[in-house]
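User:
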Amino acid sequence: MMANPETSSTQFRGEIGIHFPLHVLNRYSLPELIALAEQSRDTLGPHGFTQVWTNDNLEYRSVLASSAALVARLPLKLGTAIAVPYFRNPIDFAAAFATMSELTNGREISLGLGPGSRSILTHHVERVKPMPIMVELATVLRTLFKGDAIRRSDMPALADYFHLNAESYTLRFKARAPIRLYYGPSLLKPGVLNLIARNFDGVILQTLYGITAMEETLNTLAVARKQSALAEPLRKVMLLNASVSRDGQAAKQHAKRFVSHIASGWPDDTLIRIGIDPQSMEPVRQAYAQNRGVDYAASITPDEAVERLIIAGTPAQCLERIAELFAFAAQHGFFQVCIGVPAGPDIAEVIDLWGKEILPSLSEKRS
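Assistant: Predicted structure:
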């Protein structure tokens, strides 16, 4: 399954990853997450599995500590989907991931970045100037990882936000593995797509927006990338938003943990376009505004929101839609398909179902 992922074909031949969103998987301790990553390697390895992705939220397990523990224990690539610029200053940010690179034996770190979820993050910290902040952060990280100095004047928004005083900063040690910058996953508007194409190595696209939206996004990115100074083609990762279980109803209910904070953060016009009544999401918005957490917000999320956004159910119920997304990934040269949030109510079962039923069934469809 590990042939060239850039070939145009209906057979996806790229890598397989898995996403461990630490706030959604809050019921698992870090040792348990490491064990699940080990299960992923053993069960999904024959199908091209290479990478574990983590994510970043205040009040939940640290993306830095969790990521470092994973790469220290297992010979896998690391990704973040996403790490947030508002939680730590950019010099510390760069130093943390450069330090982690010393644990990877040269394996790439895929540093996914984004301004964070409005529904959660904006009630915790001030989310100022998200587009300038993201451009500056990409510049800072790329410069520091190369071993060069970054001037304070090259990052005015970040310097002001974090009260940085020195004229310039540098890392006084070298990163020991490639650290590529990815953007996403989020609702990608035209201005953001231009930012990605000009400043990032790759993009992470969630499937919850639908194939038509993904295709439009890819076309816009391709045009904008031609105007970028970055030489390499934009690397594309598909974060496949599915919730699977042998209990189809449990899979659908579990998906609400993810849908609650995604859909509640979208403006009304976006919800209407997707087919979700904005009034049905208002109690969920209020739950996050009151900092009542994912558990409570999920409990009041309407069923229709899950049905509109997520592939959820048993493997048999989900297979046709998953196959369609894998064909899309192959056709458009995605480097990786990542088994994404919300995954399912029991992650060990999810890994087993993907490794023993879903991925083998996709192979049978292709043969």
